[in-house]
Specification:
Blueprint (H helix, E strand, L loop, with lengths): L26 H4 L17 H4 L25 H14 L3 H23 L21 H11 L7
């Protein structure tokens, strides 16, 4: 039987994945069904895509390192690919995140993330994938899911 893991605060460095994604602002982190606890969580709690991640399991990933920016090949094609996708779809950059972590260290990066993803209405966390606060805009999120038929199995 699986045991529940605690949700970590947005300022936790454990929520920053090797590729520079802040798992604390990811849609999968907020959802209730099939919740992901972040790329650094125990593997038995993660979707297969996170367990088999080509970036996290990269053969070039530096030993004793936490981030891809520590690799001599940074930014590699894998990082450039995910960066392009996130810049295009979600207006955020993994390369910028990793560069900031490398140049200004994780503490400064987390401070920026706390400001960037903080809801101005309630102080909750805004999801990078849909731009909604999962504290005060839950009704909007649920209505979107209903419109798309994502909630039909709960009736």
């Amino acid at each position: 039987m699986k045991s529940k893991q605690k949700i970590k605060p947005l300022s936790s460095k454990e929520l920053i994945s090797p590729c520079g994604m802040n798992c604390g602002v990811c849609m999968a982190y907020f959802r209730e069904k099939n919740k992901c606890y972040g790329c650094r969580a125990l593997n038995d709690w993660k979707p297969t895509t996170r367990v088999n991640c080509r970036i996290k399991n990269c053969e070039h990933f530096p030993k004793n390192s936490k981030f891809c920016c520590d690799c001599d090949l940074f930014p590699c094609e894998k990082i450039k690919h995910i960066d392009k996708r996130y810049r295009t779809k979600y207006h955020m950059s993994m390369i910028e995140n990793l560069t900031m972590i490398k140049n200004e260290k994780i503490k400064k990066f987390l401070e920026k993330e706390n400001t960037k993803w903080k809801c101005i209405n309630c102080g909750g966390v805004i999801c990078c994938h849909n731009g909604l606060c999962y504290s005060c805009q839950m009704d909007i999120i649920k209505s979107r899911k209903n419109l798309l038929g994502w909630e039909s199995d709960k009736k």
